[in-house]
Amino acid sequence: MAEAVVFPQPGKVELREVELPDLEPGQIRLRTRVSLISTGTEGIIYSGGFAPGTHWDRWFSYPSRPGYSLVGEVSDVGPDVTGDLRPGDRVVALLGHASHHVADASVCTRVPDDVSDEDAAWFALAKVAFVGVEASQARLGSSAVVVGAGPIGQMTVRWLAALGAADIVMVHRGSGPRLELARAGGATAVLQQDLANGLSGIAAPATVLDCTGNPDVLTHALAAVADRGRVVIVGDVGDPSQQRLSSDLIVRGLTVVGAHGRHLLGRREHDIRRLFFSLVASGRFAGMCGLVTHKFAPRNGAEAYALLDADRSATMGVIFDWQ
After folding, report:
1. Residue 144 phi/psi, 5° resolution?
2. Is 3:98 a contact under the CB 8 Å cutoff?
3. What b/e string do you get for 149-183 counting C-beta neighbours within 10 Å, with b at 16 or more?
4. Is 270 inside any structural domain?
5. Is 201 found in the same domain as 176?
6. Is Metal-binding there in the keyword field (predicted)?
7. DSSP helix/strand/coil, 53
8. Number of folded domains that form the chain
9. pLDDT tens digits, 67-120
10. Cβ(38)–Cβ(69) below 8 Å
């Protein structure tokens, strides 16, 4: 048996006992160490804040088991498990918030000894940001504006810095601590303002990456980017029909592209996880210290999600500690 976080209905959280399947060939049994809440996605599912008929309706129904960013320890391996996984190894996997899992070994990536559980838990959100940066076509010496200093925005800034972007501007209308975390991660400038007010004293960038999950931002991003620039929508919103294009798209020859974690799966996903771990261990993925702001015991899941629902801006990394 295992314990799992469950949303039986919108606005309600339970810790339920769930049965684990028997170990089959090619599978491993995991004991969870920590799991990171995806505050944007899980906040939408928790509140039921998505429009009927959208892809959210196809992906999620209640009761729903949230989570997709888990660090676990291998407790047992089944027959035919290939690679270097063995009992005692730490691994990451796109698995829900639960105390134990049985999973295919092929979906797990080993965590190096010099990367902590808390840092490793960011792997899934780092991947989402990687997809966005790749879609932006940013390169050495380029300029980019990142809108939204939440978890995805923080990971985006760090990928851009590791890539060697020359100008990385974080725009966030909220409080100072998130902006300071962005600066620690490599932002060359921070603007505490709404993008609707433009970019004060900042030249129009080649790329704007919208990491907010706010449908109103797209129109403002189109106005802010340079002529023939790119606007990348990183992640998702609960009601995509609320996102609006403007005449800037045609008149100024702009490109709009969506980026989602589902775009990077399979073998390359493992490569990006290993790259993330390497950059973290070497200090080139800067400013990881301080990104985890809250830890909860799984039995206090209702408190965790109530906090996110009431004031997500007061949090950054929110972790369930299963140890």
Report:
1. -150, 145
2. yes
3. bbbbbbbbbbbbbbbebebbbbbbbeeeebbebbb
4. no
5. yes
6. yes
7. coil
8. 2
9. 999 999 999 999 888 777 999 999 999 999 999 999 999 999 999 999 999 999
10. yes
